[in-house]
Structures are given as C-alpha cells and as structure tokens.
Amino acid sequence: MDGATFPQVFIWFIFYSFLGWAWECAIVSRRQKRFVNRGFFNGPYCPIWGVGAILCLLTAKYMPNLIVRAIVDATGACILEYFTSWLLEIIFHARWWDYTPRRFNLNGRICLEGFLVFCIVSFIVPAIHPSVVATTALLPTVVVNSIFSILLIAFIADAVITFRSLTKIDRVLGEYQRVIDRRNSDLIEFVRLSRRAFELRINEKHHTGDSLNFQQRRIINAFPQLDAKDNMEALDNIRKIYAKDKTKTSRAARKKARKKATKVARSKRPR
C-alpha cells in the first residue's frame, strides 16, 4: 500500500470486490442450479469484499503474526457485515440475509462459518496482492487514471440506480400485501379470489406502473432469504408466481428444442 495513489487503491478495491462477487455467485448458483447475480448492485462486484481486502492489506503491514492478523481481519469483516445488514434493514425495511439456521450465529447477521472464510481470505489477499500491484504498475498513469474514472462513474451510477429502485420495493410489496389482506379479510372473498385472480391483480399492476422492475426482481432472486418484514406473505406469493413462470419457460424451451431435434433428424433420414 506504500506509495499507492487513490486511483490505484480504488482499482484494487473493485478487483477484490469482483473476486468476492464471483465467489458468492458460484456458491449461490450451485445451490440453485442456475446462474444468480448475487451482488447487491447490478455490476459484478460485492463492495463488502473489496473493503475487507483493503483491510487485510492494511493489517498485513503492521501485524506480522499471521494468526493475530487473521483474527483481526475476520473480526473487522464480521463487524462490517453486521453493520451492513443492520443498515440495509433500517433503510429498506428488509433483511437481506439470515444465518439463523447456521450454528454459532449472532442475530442471524453473522456466523462462525463466515468468520472462518474471512480468516482464509486474510491469508490469500496478501499472497496475491504483489502480482496485482505489479500488474497495475505496468500501466501508464494516464491509463490508470482513465480506468479509475470509468470505474468510479460506473460504480456511483450503479449505486444511485440501485438505491432509487430498492427504496420503492417496500411500497410495491405493500401494494401486493394489501391485495392479500383484502382477500383474507372476508371468507367469501378468500374463496373467490383464487391464486389465478391474484396473478391477474399483479399483471394489472404491470400495466399501471406499480410492478416490480428488473432491479427489484433480480434482488428477490439473488437473496432467497430476503425477509420483507410486514410484507412477507406478498413476497412469498410473488416468488411462487415467478418460479411458476420460470418453470413454464423452461418447459417451453425444452419442448421447442425437442421439436427442432426431431425436425433435424427427419431431414437427415435417407429418402
């Protein structure tokens, strides 16, 4: 970190944020058996990993003892993760991840497993960072500054778009929740308003502008443990509808592929 300029540090921050994003996407995509953009932002990066990596580089300079450094780095990363979870819940009235099912967790915001992962990261980052420094050192200053400017503008724009979109998700879910509440308030309405009718209500909102946009749908898919607090029933219904739509799309794609394969096979038959 000695002698590094702010543009260089920011590029390193984005690089390590990208590695963290790739790691989380790989884990979640494997569990869901499809690609999931796990990042909170639209871009391919998780800032919490970038901040953690920079913390590792700072402690590596002043703490030669590897065990002590790993504990300090992991503790700092867990504090950051806990604070991030709490802050996002305050801002968006939703909890984005929940480690309650895992052993040795603290209020579901952090857990021992995450602490151990951060310990491993504290060894990896200082080991690969000399290569990262050497690579950025090969770039002329004008190139570094240009890359920095592009990344910074893209990062800020992404942050603004993300926050503006997600500040509305609670209102949209609230609209869906009120549909459910009206249904549940009366038994006759409950019987009449079937799942299909609820889907039609949601489709109507797509035409009135009260639907979930791409950003909001991506977040719902990326965070399966997202807890919408007062609008949880609405969120569960929406997830089921989206899952049903994906199943229909998948079946249609497989059916189309089979028809195409059959057509190709018939065209190759000798006449």
List keywords for this structure.
271 residues; 1% strand; single chain; mainly alpha; 2 domains; two-stranded antiparallel sheet; 10 helices
Summarize the structure.
This protein has 271 residues and is mainly α.
Shape: globular
The number of E-state strands comes to 2
Poorly predicted spans: 206-210
Going across the major beta sheet, what is the strand order? Answer: 1-2
The average pLDDT score comes to 79
Radius of gyration: 24 Å
Give the helices and strands as they follow along the chain. HHHEEHHHHHHH
Largest sheet: 2 strands, antiparallel
Query: Approximately how much helix is present in the residues?
Result: over 70%
Alpha plus pi helix count: 10
Number of domains: 2
For the termini, the CA-CA separation is 73 Å
